[in-house]
Specification:
The protein is mainly β. The protein has 1 helix and 11 strands; from the N terminus they run βββαββββββββ. The chain has one helix at residues 26-29; strands at residues 4-7, 10-13, 18-24, 33-39, 46-51, 58-60, 68-73, 78-83, 92-99, 113-114, 118-123. Strands 2, 4, 5, 6, 9, 10 and 11 form a 7-stranded mixed sheet that branches.
């Protein structure tokens, strides 16, 4: 099983920045499409961003494009989500996910490996 562990969540002021990290098991990280999802209280989980192994491809939800940046450091087996100009509506549990399927853009339902999530709370 792929092991994913998110970190970096916390309380942040609206308009501020936050960087989330996801540490993946070394052997599982290679060749996986990595992604970030989020789930706000009472809402469905939604896709945020994804990145390919080579980092040559990134994919974002249109509404978040320009504020969020996904990146990965393969040497460190880590994927990041840099959040800028956060808004109250960004408050959610953010999940790191891995997709072994190579379809690009990725199919959200094929992200089959998940971390436990990290809470991001944006204060107004």
């Amino acid at each position: 099983q792929v092991q994913l562990a998110e970190s970096g969540g916390g309380l942040v002021q609206a308009g501020g920045s936050l960087r989330l990290s996801c540490a993946a098991s070394a052997r599982a990280f290679s060749n996986y499409i990595m992604g970030w999802f989020r789930q706000a209280p009472g809402k469905e989980r939604e896709f945020v961003a994804a990145i390919r192994w080579t980092s040559t491809g990134t994919y974002y939800t249109d509404s978040l494009k320009g504020r969020f940046t996904i990146s990965r450091d393969n040497a460190k087996n880590t994927v990041y989500l840099q959040m800028y100009n956060v808004k109250s509506e960004d408050t959610a549990i953010y999940y790191c996910a891995a997709n072994r399927d190579r379809t690009w853009p990725p199919i959200g339902s094929l992200f089959g490996f998940w971390g436990q999530g990290t809470q991001v709370t944006v204060s107004s």
